3-deoxy-D-manno-octulosonic acid transferase (Gemmobacter denitrificans), 392 residues
Amino acid sequence: MAIGLTLYQLAGRRTGPEVLARPDRPKGRLVWLHAPGMDQGRGLWELARHILEEDGHPVLITAPEPGPLPEGALWQPVPGEGSAELRGFLDHWRPEAILFSGGELRPAMILEAAERRIPMAMVDARAPVLPPGREGWYPGLMKSALSHLAEILVVDDGAGRAMRKAGAHRIAVTGRLEEPSAILPCTEAERAALARQLVARPVWLANGLPEAEEPAVIEAHRSALRLAHRLLLIVVPQNPDRAPVLAERLERAEGWQVALRNRDEEPEPETEVLIADAAELGLWYRLAPLTFLGGSLAGTGCQCDPMAPAALGSALIHGPRPGPFGLAFGRLGAARAARSVGSAADLAEALAELLSPDRAARLAQAAWGVCSDGAEASERALALLRRLLGEA
């Protein structure tokens, strides 16, 4: 194992960003939660909220970005795997327990913490992997790192098998952690007024729409109007500065009846396209039973959290580019809770199909189930943490 650790630490330079100034350590039994990425860290943010509210322990989160931190949690960038930096990090924060997530193993970090007798476990675990840039074969290293984890809570049987194959023993299948609420707010009076205005009109939303996907969405809308002549398209451009440009092009060059929300224009009965902005996404998700997630078809990747419309009952259409939401799209796909499309023609076909309220409702119900699960897994993770701290 010593040879493996040496080779591992020589395999590349530090994988984290430069060290930032560290705030003072809060008083109390500090818990350190580590997420290897934003997608894998979603459940940790909610777990941190539970720890703060239910147990009152200070919480430190390390992740590539701060993410949606609960009030009271501290964030730091992921420390590198060099011994001096790890020692300095642990000397400063002095955690009393560490929970890793996602399956990523950082052997130098784990072994340094083990020497200090800090209890550790892993939650929300997938197959074990080493950090990006450190992949390779290091004799006995992964098995040694896994041996220092008191327990590993995995998301499914496949992850459990992968962990056992790598040398882990204390494994429990608990499913995915509960994630932060994706329900966006809106003004109820505004929603009720627009709902009355749009009564009996079918509505669909294209959120986070980049310029490259505008032709596909507009053509799909044009095709769907042959089936539902009162259909309203709500567009939220990825770049809000593009809203007036898009409105003018659609009106003058293509003859569409367009309303621009930031000019206080309302969707009148003859309006075919309403161009809105992201500040009111909670409103649009509530009004649109069907949402296309922009950036996922011809853009650089989806930039809008798919769980937000799912939590509000909107059925989902998306392309093959998930952006930073790969795991979320994977869960939705496994539950048959979203419609995937690969081209502009596919988008038009999916829209026509999901104009049927029954079909859209089935997708929306399945998606809501995906975004609302995980409470039991979070309870198991909290119980595990309390055992690590000697409080259970």
